[in-house]
Design brief:
7 strands, elongated, 4-stranded parallel sheet, single chain, alpha/beta, 3-stranded mixed sheet, 2 domains, GMP Synthetase, Chain A, domain 3
């Protein structure tokens, strides 16, 4: 089995067509012929997606690794081959968990797909009716949601954004008017101001920037409280804002 599946196929690079390797774990209690059939099916799916499979990698294990699907040595072997042969995609024969996907992507020089993602891509490319497209898109969202959790901070860090270490800043950024630069200093001012107002007993409010000042939006039931405590509000906010305005239109909770 090892000799059969870990040989290279004579598939040249065709313009506009991706080249892939297929990866599978053969369980200790699994018939090798069944594993080979699954890989044949995976190659057929790849072909349907216009991806040429040039090599298979298999490894016999009791169960796939919960971290990287295969063993560390096998993963390194696959990564080296993909790097040397300029492979575009690595396709795994099982559905990878979000953690497995992230760990494997760190090691690979190319795109990573699993069987489920490959099938969804095929359905998405072939859906014709509005209903079919909606159903496939829904399935795609359900697949992607657990894989997107936790990416915000990582992507922000890679992009050099100052918000990567404080996810709440993404929410506070909505307090900055359109056209005005969003800076760490401005968000820290909003954060300090809203914390101070919360300590004064206000709830479900927004403190929005207006140039060098701020505009306080409150629900209807708290407008009278703001008038009663205006001296305390000014004392809490004046160090950060040159002027503080109270919006007399009650805030409708949306953002």
């Amino acid at each position: 089995m090892e000799n059969k599946d870990n040989t290279t196929k004579n598939v040249g690079r065709e313009p506009g067509r991706e080249r892939a390797v297929a990866v599978a774990v053969v369980r200790d209690d699994q018939d090798p012929r069944q594993a080979a059939e699954y890989l044949d099916e995976l190659e057929f799916l790849a072909e349907t997606a216009d991806i040429a499979t040039v090599k298979r990698f298999t490894q016999r294990l009791p169960q796939p690794s919960s971290r990287i699907y295969v063993g560390p040595g096998k993963l390194e072997e696959i990564a080296d081959y993909c790097r040397d042969e300029e492979i575009d995609v690595v396709i795994f024969d099982d559905e990878l968990s979000p953690a497995q996907t992230r760990n494997i992507e760190k090691a690979m020089p190319c795109r990573v797909l699993d069987r489920t993602r490959l099938i969804l891509d095929i359905f998405m490319s072939r859906a014709r009716t509005a209903y079919a497209k909606t159903q496939v898109q829904l399935a795609n969202y359900q697949y992607m949601l657990p894989r997107l959790r936790g990416w915000g901070a990582a992507l922000s860090r890679q992009a050099g954004l100052f918000t990567w270490d404080k996810p709440s800043y993404a929410c506070l950024a909505t307090r900055v008017p359109a056209g005005q630069a969003i800076t760490r200093d401005s968000l820290e001012k909003v954060e300090r101001g809203e914390d101070a107002l919360a300590r004064l007993g206000f709830r479900d409010f927004r403190l929005r920037l207006t140039g060098g000042g701020a505009r306080l939006q409150l629900p209807e039931g708290q407008l009278s409280l703001a008038l009663e405590r205006r001296t305390e509000i000014l004392a809490a906010l004046e160090s950060d804002f040159s002027e503080i305005a109270l919006d007399l239109r009650p805030r409708v909770p949306i953002d």
